[in-house]
Design goal:
By secondary structure, the chain is mainly alpha-helical. The chain is 69% helix and 1% strand. The longest helix has 23 residues.
């Protein structure tokens, strides 16, 4: 399948799903039918060519698949009404599939997939499957699990939605803000998993970072006045701009200070900077905007020595007050150490460990050792640094990162 066809299918997937759910009201079966339609298209279009109206083609195939699924349930009494309605929809001209409406269902689908009845892992998986158009196998591979395990997670997520009575409708004003916040968090997690993969032989999963950016662009188009959505997209673009410089030709990790900045993607930097500059003056500052502002400071620096670390440290302090999470606190340690020296950074790290136990938190216990090792190395304690680099290496399943940390330890003796 060509990249153009793959991109087209992923773009059309949420619109096709929206059309089927709006017609039949069955998200669970409609999502399965869409996957069948996408599979058929991936097999036929490269051979026969892309049809003139690809969305209508997918909807037509999806209708047929969905009717087959509904008919297969006729033996169950609780499905008879749905099956009868499906037969009627196919027999009556007025209810048959019409040419696709130019309705963008992306936001409604994102909100549905991030329903509060679902756990966070289920929200992520269902978003990638239903809105992103990824196959169960692709999602499983990205998260280092089996296709069967991921399939079970997705199936249970759809069952939870059905039991919760979730409908394909826009959220009420009462829960709209919280649901959009959940959507942004899910997209942020997808991007982060792609940027530094939790497991595997490669540092990153560019398929996930690109998918997160595509879905966030979709969200931005649906909510053009939301400053935090703009901030999230800016953050992703400015971070992804460093992708090609983050690893060597043999896929070894290259830390930020050692990256060849001429390899940074200037188009992404320009787009991301324009986005954050456009919303920053509104003074409706949120966590994603602050992270984007930090990334913009890095992007504006032509060399590590020119980086305005005091400004970054101040931005992280602001971010910590808004979003006091272990990763944010640890990032502030790095910024303070860069701005004011490793001794001050170590003192702050010790204080935060006493109060918040960053060295024991699941989200920071590995990176806390990396940060402390680096700061100890800068103060001359190479033996202590080497020990911590080895501890950190034992706590990651990403083989690229593990090799990097063990190499750092080996060089220190």
């Amino acid at each position: 399948m060509t990249p153009d066809v793959e991109h087209l299918l992923r773009t059309e997937a949420p619109q096709v799903l929206g059309a089927l759910v709006r017609r039949f009201g069955r998200f669970d079966l409609a999502e399965d039918a869409v996957q069948e339609a996408l599979l058929a298209a991936s097999q036929m279009w490269p051979v026969d060519g892309v049809p003139d109206n690809p969305r209508s083609w997918l909807i037509r195939i999806g209708y047929r698949k969905l009717v087959d699924l509904l008919r297969s349930e006729q033996a169950r009494r609780r499905r008879e009404q749905h099956a009868a309605a499906a037969d009627l929809a196919m027999r009556e001209p007025a209810r048959q599939a019409q040419p696709a409406r130019e309705t963008d269902d992306s936001l409604t689908l994102l909100l549905l997939c991030c329903h509060p009845a679902l756990s966070l892992p289920s929200q992520v998986a269902l978003t990638l499957r239903a809105v992103g158009g990824l196959t169960t196998d692709e999602i499983a591979h990205a998260y280092g699990t089996t296709e069967a395990t991921m399939g079970t997670r997705i199936s249970r997520a759809k069952q939870h939605l059905a039991r919760a009575g979730a409908r394909f409708t826009a959220p009420t004003d009462a829960d709209r803000a919280s649901r959009i916040t959940a959507v942004m968090h899910v997209l942020y997690l997808i991007f982060n998993e792609g940027y530094t993969a939790t497991t595997g032989e490669t540092l990153s999963r560019i398929d996930l970072t690109q998918e997160a950016i595509r879905l966030t662009r979709m969200l931005r188009q649906a909510l053009p006045d939301d400053a935090e959505v703009a901030g999230l997209l800016a953050l992703m673009l400015l971070t992804e701009a460093r992708h090609t410089a983050r690893s060597s030709p043999d896929d070894e990790l290259v830390p930020l200070d050692e990256q060849d900045r001429t390899r940074w993607n200037t188009d992404l930097i320009r787009e991301g900077t324009t986005l954050i500059d456009g919303v920053w003056p509104r003074r409706q500052i949120g966590p994603y905007q602050l992270q984007a502002a930090i990334a913009a400071v890095h992007a504006a620096s032509m060399s590590p020595e020119q980086t305005d670390w005091p400004q970054i440290a101040a931005l992280y302090l602001w971010l910590e007050r808004l979003n006091p999470t272990p990763p944010v606190r640890l990032s502030r340690v790095v910024a303070v150490a860069k701005a004011y020296g490793p001794t001050r950074g170590l003192a702050l790290l010790d204080d935060l460990n006493r109060r918040y136990r960053l060295n024991q938190e699941p989200l920071t216990r590995q990176r806390e050792r990396v940060v402390r090792a680096h700061l100890l190395q800068l103060t001359g304690d190479t033996a202590g640094a080497a020990t911590l680099y080895r501890e950190a290496a034992s706590l990651t399943d990403n083989q690229v990162e593990r090799r990097y940390l063990l190499d750092r330890a080996h060089r220190l003796g």
